[in-house]
Amino acid sequence: MKRVETYGKIFGGLCCLILLILPESLNWISYGFFGIILLTVGIPHGAIDHLTSDPLINKSGLIRFVLLYLLLIFLYLVCWFFFPLTALVLFIVMSAYHFGQTHFLGVKAPRILDIILYLSRGSFFLALILFGNLKETAVILDDIVKIQLTESQSIGIISILFLSTVAIQVYLGIKIRKKDILELSLLGGLLYYSPLLVGFITYFGFWHALPSMIEEYAYLKRIPDYSTFRKFFIQLLPFTLISLVGIALILLIGQHYLETSQLILIFFIMISLISFPHIIYMDRFLRKST
């Protein structure tokens, strides 16, 4: 399965590079790429949290799980409604931790201190994506916060985050692998210069969702009900379809009343809502399985 991850990342990186040099008249290809990756690995990798939590879950257990999941989504939605800036900061911090954790799958790190490691690595890559497209990021977040950073200031923040994440990894005694060097340099440069949506979906899809899904499959395939990829794929479908239908309906309605930047913000808010409980359950799963 490691080959699948490696080939997937190579494919994702090449697609990102091609989309980076495409003329603006072909932007529709970028949106198509975004949609395909979101459909195939982005949403599905979080659609089996109930199984990674309890592979032998029964009907009553599933009902309790879904109710708790929906409660967490509702609580975070309330936070977005009354305290949007707090909700935004929480989403960025959660995402940084969640994404950073995926860079160190299978790597033993000291408990508690590993939180700082994951946060630093994820923050670095998110900063590359957001600050590399500072004007676009500022427009999308304009209804929540006014971003007034200069390009030199954003580069300064990225540099500090880079030095911090490398220093933390060295301090914790975790070897700097070739993989780390390639990600911090080649991937970092690619994400910084890529359009916002392209950079985000490349990183989210191939450096987070795909490795996470491989980890989930490796865990579940030892159980007869999920022992083949076909059986595993079938388990992904129900909650994936529910999530996609819900997001699609809201966006279809929203396009009649909102501008493009506002639609993108609404989309990311919806992603944050389903991400909140997913991050909690995925962290528990990864800590249990390593």
Secondary-structure element string: HHHHHHHHHHHH
Main beta-sheet annotation: none
Shape descriptor: globular
**Terminal-residue CA separation:** 17 Å
Q: What fraction, in percent, of the residue positions are helical?
A: over 70%
List segments where confidence is low: pLDDT < 50 over at least 5 consecutive residues: none
The counted number of beta strands is: 0
Question: Structural class of the helices, strands and pairings?
Answer: mainly alpha
Q: What's the number of helices?
A: 12
For the residues shown, what is the average pLDDT? 90
Portion of residues in beta strands equals: under 5%
- Please give the radius of gyration in angstroms: 19 Å
Overall structural domain count: 1
What do these coordinates show?
This protein is mainly α and 290 residues long. It has one domain. The protein has 12 helices and no strands. α1 (2-21) runs parallel beside α9 (178-193) and α4 (59-82) packs across α5 (84-102). The longest helix is centred in the C-terminal third of the chain and has 30 residues, at 260-289. The chain is globular, with a radius of gyration of 19 Å. The protein starts with a helix and ends with a helix.
